[in-house]
Structures are given as C-alpha cells and as structure tokens.
Fold these 2 entries.
Entry 1:
Amino acid sequence: MNFPAELKYTKDHEWIRIEGSEAIVGITDFAQRELGDIVYIDINTQGQEVAQNEIFGTVEAVKTVSDLFIPVTGTILEINPLLDSQPELVNQDPYGDGWLVKITLSSETEAADLLSAEDYKSLIGV
Amino acid sequence: MKNTALTETHISLGAKMVPFAGYSMPVQYEGINAEHQVVRNSVGVFDVSHMGEFILKGERALELIQKVTSNDASKLVEGKVQYSCLPNETGGIVDDLLVYRIDSNTYMLVVNASNIEKDWNWISKFNTYGVELKDISERTALLAVQGPKAAEALQSLTETDLSSMEYYSFKKGKFAGIENVLISATGYTGAGGFELYFDSSHAEEVWRAIFEAGAPYGIRPIGLGARDTLRLEMGFCLYGNDIDDYTSPLEAGLGWITKFNKDFVNAAQLAEQKQNKPARKLIGFEMIDRGIPRHDYEIVDRSGNNIGKVTSGTQSPSLQKAIGLGYVKPEFSTVGSEIFINIRNNPVKAQVVKLPFYKG
C-alpha cells in the first residue's frame, strides 16, 4: 500500500494536500481497500462550511457504506466531477484522479492535528 | 477463530480475510465486482468449508427429518437434494438447509456455519426415533464451483458425466483422484455449477487440481462478498439477514418448501398463518432514486409511516442497480408498489419488483 510522504492523514482514513489557503481531500489507499468496490460518492455539502472531523459525505461500496470526515474545518468548494460517472477512480487512484473534494481552509492551526505518513502507517499497522 | 483447510491458500492468493461464523474466511480476492462477473460469465471457486454437515443414519431417519423440516422429504429419491427449513415452535426458523438422500436409511443435512450447534441441539431434541446423528462438519471440506463453464472446467477430473447431472441431484464418485467425493449439482449463485464435499485432508490437492483443470476457462477464486451479491440477485434468502428465529417461512416466501401434507414442528400454527395470511411479506425491490439499501434500514410509505424493514441490499454488479430484500405489510407487497427506503433519514424512492432480480 502506498502513503505519499507529502500528504497529511487522519485517523478516519482521509488524506489532505494543503496548498496555501486551499486543500484537496480524499480517502487513503488503506480505506479504499477496506471498502472494496466503490459504487458512488454522495456529497451534498458543496458551498457549506464543515467543521473539523465532521461528516461531509458518504461513500457507498458494494458491501458497505462509510461516512467521510473532513480533516480540517473548511468550505467545500468543489466535488471531483469525474466521480459521478467513474466512482471506481477512488479505488484505482485514491491520491490522484480519485480525489474527493477541494476546500478552502477556515483555520490555520488545525493542520497541526494531522498525521504524517509515518504516523498513519503505524496507526493502521503497516 | 477457526480456519478451514484452505485458509493458508487464501492468504497466499492475497485474499482479504474476515471473521465469519467463527471462521477466518476470504471475503474477496481481486474485488467483488470482478469476482461476481467471473461466476456469471465463466467459472469461479468458493471455499465454503465452514458450512455444517450432519449424517443421519437409521431405519427411522426419514421420520426424524419429516418431523423437524418443513419440506416433504418423502419425495426424495436416492441421489436427490431438497431445500428445506427447520421451523421453530414459535413461528420462526431455526435454520435453512439442504437434505441429501444418500440411501433409504442415510441422509446428509447441510446447515449454515453459524447455526451448527443450534441445529444439532434442535434436531437431537426431536430424535425419539433412535436415529444415529453424526456431525462431520470439522472434517468435511466443501468447494462450490459455480458458473456456466463449471461442468466443462471440471469434466477432466472425474468420470461422472457432469453436464448431464440435473439441478439438485448428486453422485458419489472419484474426483481429482480422491475417492468418495460427493458431487452435487447445487449452488447459491443462480449461475449453475457444483458443490463438492470431501474429506478435508485432501483440500489442497483438490483445490490445486480444480485450478489446473479450470485454467483454460479462466477459473478464479471467489470470496464471500461476491457470494452475497450473487445470491441476492437471485433473491435467495440468507439466514441471519432475510430469515431468522422470528420470521416465518410463509412470510419469507418459502411457502413452496412448507408442506402441510405431513406433520412437522409447528405445522398447526403455520397452517393457521397460511389461512389468515401473514402480517408481512418478504419482497424484492429496486431503487428508483439514488441510494443503496442496507440491512435494517427502515421502509416507509409516501407519507413517511413505517411499513417494514430492509433485510439485504447491495449494488447489483450484473444489473448495475441498487437492489434489496425486505419485509413490508402485505398491502405494499405487490409488484409495482412504490415504497421508500430511509437512507440516513432521507426517504429514497424504490419499487417492488418480481424475483429473481437477475434473469440471466
């Protein structure tokens, strides 16, 4: 499994790439493997501010459903437009074309709570 | 946690293992959708050795079976299999099972892994017929080889003519060089194929032989995840989801295996229920609006009143639609009825459809 060192992670198995005042959020390689074949992504929080660790959507896989949690407080700017027709991108390329949302950050300090790739790997035991 | 004789094989094939009914079992190898398609289109192999097998032996074995099961086992002839259930005394189901007639004094019952002990105790309780009961679950391996290419893929391993075997019949014979393999033309997928019962000491040998013989047909290992989507597309009940200690066979649409021409446990109460019509019915439904039904989601009517509960649901890999089974009040059970599934407090429209979902 792959956990890029330049990303930050959460215990809820999301990753975040912070670029200035914006960030991209997705789920980790571990999360997509645990979920199995993803059927669709349900995010209806576009334009809303979501507080850190709150639910911003759900991911439906064949076998199960799981909530999606925002790593840091932010406003949902954009939902990955590819996922509507190709939800399997989250399985195939979780850190690339399978990203979930773009957000604007509301806080400058919360990022300190995030996990490094190494911390995340020891959390999931790999 | 118990292992089957093939647990190490599954791990070496990269399976994701999960605890199921006290066993460590493969839930998927390459992915549920891909494995599902392999079974629908060619052939795949499931290790279902966790299932339970009991041998009932004695002159009055049939009488005991007639007493504890709802279907009419007197209709069985040697070499035939019957789907049946064990009704409890309070209107529910102890388990569903297969009944094999080996000979006039010998039967094999195949039961769900999670219910082995419960079924054993239940059947023993009614054994006033002097029938010898033997639990061979621990030493019996069971491989389900399922799919339209199953007969072709396996034929080189046995002299038994596989393509001529009727659905729900079985033969005992030599298979992959192993004596005494019970070859059963049964399955839980609706894709056709065989279930092979044999001594678990030969499990790895038989597994290897099947994959060698099946290689030209693209044979693949299949996990419990795809087993669930395959059975659900056929509308087959899963014990613990769609049927349990509190659902009656009549409510569950199992009237066809509930035969009142003989006496069995709780027959009188079930006959009365049949007369008065059950208060709820198991139905199949398809989602009209987007959402995936899951076990225990509430079913409501247009005004939001509770009318039932989802018992199974998934995204059907063959149909590319979200489908489910659930109990509803009889007035909502006719094909075409509009129902709503409460998905995270949001009523999502669905429609009652005819089973099976998948018609091949």
Entry 2:
Amino acid sequence: MSLDFSQLQPSELLTLYVDGELPELMHPTLFSMLASDSDLQQEMNEHLTMKRHFDTTLVAPPKILQEGVLRRIGAIGLGTTVAQPTFIETAKTSLTAFAGIVVQPLLYLLTGAALTGFFMTLNPDKQFVNSIQSSQSIQQSPIELQPNSHKQWNNLGRNSYSSIVLPAFSFSNVYFPEIHQASMVDASVNIDKTLALYDEYSPENNSETVLEDIAWKADNTIINEEPTSEFSIGLRGFTQHSYTPQTVNPSIKPSVNNLALSIEYALTQNNSIYAEGGQEFIPHRFSGQEGNYFIQYDQTYLASWAAIGWKHTFTTDYSVKPIVKISAGATETGPLGRVSAGIEYDLSNKITLMTGVEGITSLYTYQQQWFSTQKIGLTYGAKIKL
Amino acid sequence: MNSGIPPHNMDDHSSPLEYRNLSDIELYLMLNGGGSSAHYGLNILYERYSARIYSYCRKILGEIQATDDIFQETFVRFYEMGVLGREVQNIQGYLLKIARNLCLNEKQKKYNTTKISLENFEFPSLDTPYEQTELNRLIATALEMLPDDYKEVLVLREMYGYSYNEIAEIVETTMPIVRTRIYRAKQKIRVILAPFIDDLYRS
C-alpha cells in the first residue's frame, strides 16, 4: 500500500525528509513550503538540532557480562575468564565436543549389547547347541591321533599353544560324549586323547564372496533435489576372510547371504545411528573338557544377526566423505561387534554409495568359556534417503 | 539446514581467527547444533553487536542492573535459537528484536511500581547556560519521558539508522504506524525541549 504524501501535513513531510524517507519527487513541494513558512523553518532547525544532539554513543558492556553469557551457554566453566582461544584450546574444545558425540552413541551400543547379546547367552549351552541325535547333517571329520606330540588350541589364548599330555587311550575306547551341534550348522568333531592340530585341516574356503549383484544401479535411481528426511535405508554386502578356519562346509547354502539391511537416522549432519540386520557364515571353533577327553568342535554357523550402531561422517567439500561405523548386537549364539571404515559417495540427493573395510568379532561360549571368531573384509552397498 | 554456506566446524582445527572473516549469517549457522564452534560463533557475534545491543537496552531501560540482566538474556536466547536452527536473515535486527521483547517485558513488570510523568520531572533551570553535552542530556531525558512504543522506534531510527520499513519489521508492525510513532515522538520531544531550544538559539 503506497503512501499518499500529498495528504500529509507539512510537519510530517519535514520529519520524513529529515529521516530520509521522503521521495525525491516530493522534495520540491517541501522546499517551496519551507521557503514560505517561517514556522516550518524553525521546526526544521529543531529537527536538525535534535538529530545532531541525539546521543548515538555506543556503550560497551562490562567484560563480566560477556563472561556471564558464555558461562550460561556452557562455553566456559565456573571461575574461568574469557581469553582469546589459542590453537591448543581450540583443539581441546573440539576433542571435548567430539567425546560428547562419541559417548552418547556408545551408550546406545552398550544398551543394545546388554539387551540382545548377553540376554541370548544367559544359558549358553542350552541355547547354543542341540543334541547331535536330533540332526542328520553332522559330518564328522577324520580323527587324528597324535599320542606323543600335540598342541591344544584354545580360543581364549588364540596365539598361544601349549603341549598337554593326557592319559593314553585306544580309539575303540573313545568316549563319545554328547556332541552338540548348533542349529543350521555342520560340525566336525575331533576327538583325541589330545587335540588334533587344528591347522592341519585344509580349510576348504575361508573367504566368502557373495552378493554378485547388489541391485543398486544408478540408471534406476530417481535423481532429484527434493528434500529428504533424516531416515534412510541401506543394503550392503561384504566379502570377508575369517581368522577362525572354516573347516567344514555348511549344510545350508542360502542363495542370498552375506547381506545386511539397515535403517539409519541422521542425528546431525555428521552423526547417525542405525539398526542393521543380516546373515552370514561365521566359523566357530571351541574346545573343552567332556569327561576325560578334550574335545574340539568346528562348525560353520549360518548366523542371523542384528545390531545397532553409530556412524560418523567426516565433513568434506566433496561428494566423497570418509565414514567410520561401529555397532554392537548379537547372533543367536552370542554378542557380535562390527567396526568399519570407508567412504560414502553421494550419487544424488537421495542415493549414496559406500564401500570400506569391515571387521567383526563374534563371541560364543562353551562350558562357560568364551570363544571368538574374527573376520575382516570388504563391504560395499548403497542407501536411499527416505 | 543447507544455505550453501561451506561447513565450518572445529574438526578441521581452523584457527578462531579465520572465523572472524565470516559473515553474520555464516557465524549464525555455526550455532546450529551447539558445541565449540557454536561458542566461537557466538563469541564473535557478541563482539560485533554487544555494544549496540547494550546501548539499546540502556536507552530503553535506563537502569544499569536491569540492562545488564536483559542484555545477557538477549544473547543467551539468541544462542538458543541458533542452536535450534531457527532461520534468520538479519542478525542485528534479530538481536534487537529479542532485546526489545525482553525490555518490554521488563518495563511492563516495572510499570506497576514506577512511573515517570511530565509533572514530577524537574527540568534544569532556564538560567543555566547550555553546553552541548547538556543538550545531549536533555534530549536523552526527553527520550526517557516518551511512551515505550514511541521511544523504541525513535532509538532504532536515530541510533541505528534503520529505515522505517526495517523498524516495522523489528517491532512487528506496519510502516505507517512506525511513521506515525516517529513523527509523534519527535513532536513530543520538540514540545518538551521547546523552551530550552529557544534559549539555545537566543544565546
């Protein structure tokens, strides 16, 4: 709505002029009024005097007020004063902030591990194994007798080997204990008065490569600039080498394996939490005492797993961004931890590709002893922002 | 919130000196999410605008103690809004708007107990020769006697040089109302100062 200046009184026009709000078009009109009106001239003088003597001095606030503000927002602690931050202070503050970012996700992870992994292993022997009689898929490996020289393998001391001599016995007298087998696995059972050399077995295939075709192709994606939510779903595969040898073939070979499906929620631009579930083979090896015998079990476990985790994306000016991920969860047999580092590439506003290196640790128990399997390998996949 | 501003965080260990070259909006965006970079961002914005906001509060409130409290509260609320990612285009205007609202609330609280009127105000004697500083003081005194809604628009106009439209945006009203208030404010000051200004010109 435009202002009709012709309707204003001369005094109002004068005020607008002094404040620089009167259009130049109206200046001649005002000037002609001023020329003929001495009261208006007087008012003009008063306006200019007022403007000239209006106190425009800026008063700097006391320094203590700045400290008060910064203290209230948590920038400085009690009893400290504000100083120009040095590089070291800047770095220290950054680390503190980063620690704050890390602690919260770790609490999530610990909670997840407590609720899933340890819950599932409260009664490990009963939950983990079934009686061998109930399964037809057992494949027994050759038993090797090495009465004089032997090594004992114990996953609790993975890198240590010790010689143990046990009472001799004949094969015919082998006490065949109630051998256990996890569900959905094949197992080999090696029984000796001592343990067989585990590394004399020929691992048939320690590396697994699946996911021939992750069905994410750029041609099929929708590229647009629509705003996205904080949620995204992802699918990834992995190719991993197991440091616990896979000495037996799994009895089940699923057509889809070594895959993980996830849903991710972006807390901030750099930090996300996610829940992930997947399936993969995890070779198990554990040993223990059954009666008078040491027994070593090998099994290849088709693990369905679930985990929750935290992802940190490092800020760059490019579409490629380094990421680190850490998650904790469980399989049916025990807790599972996964750590990965890699890069993400924003193919579009909605599609992000990723690749990296991932390591996992799977824990399982036997006779109240903990054993673990470590795997490491490549991971690759994609996610779609919802 | 993506404004096209390159990201600035403390992860890259940038020197705080580099932040001083950032624009108001860039610094304000650093507040989003909090953390150390937000602290630095606020610190620099504080150094840029603290004197203006403090002076405004002093002009509106008068009392130093209340001014100090309102001034600090202004920056804390500004920081909180920034952390929450509220979109802002004019940082100084936004700060003034927060300060104004807080000042009005404070004035409202005090209005019930303190009220200055023209009748009980003691003007300096006409016999006193007026120096320039005295005229400044007189105008400041006359300003104190204005109603709050007149005073604030006049302060924004004369002290900060805001246009009528910008003032209308800050005080959340229309431009014609601002024009009217400024005009009336100046007329009231003229009336109050008339005897003194006459004397000044005579001398």
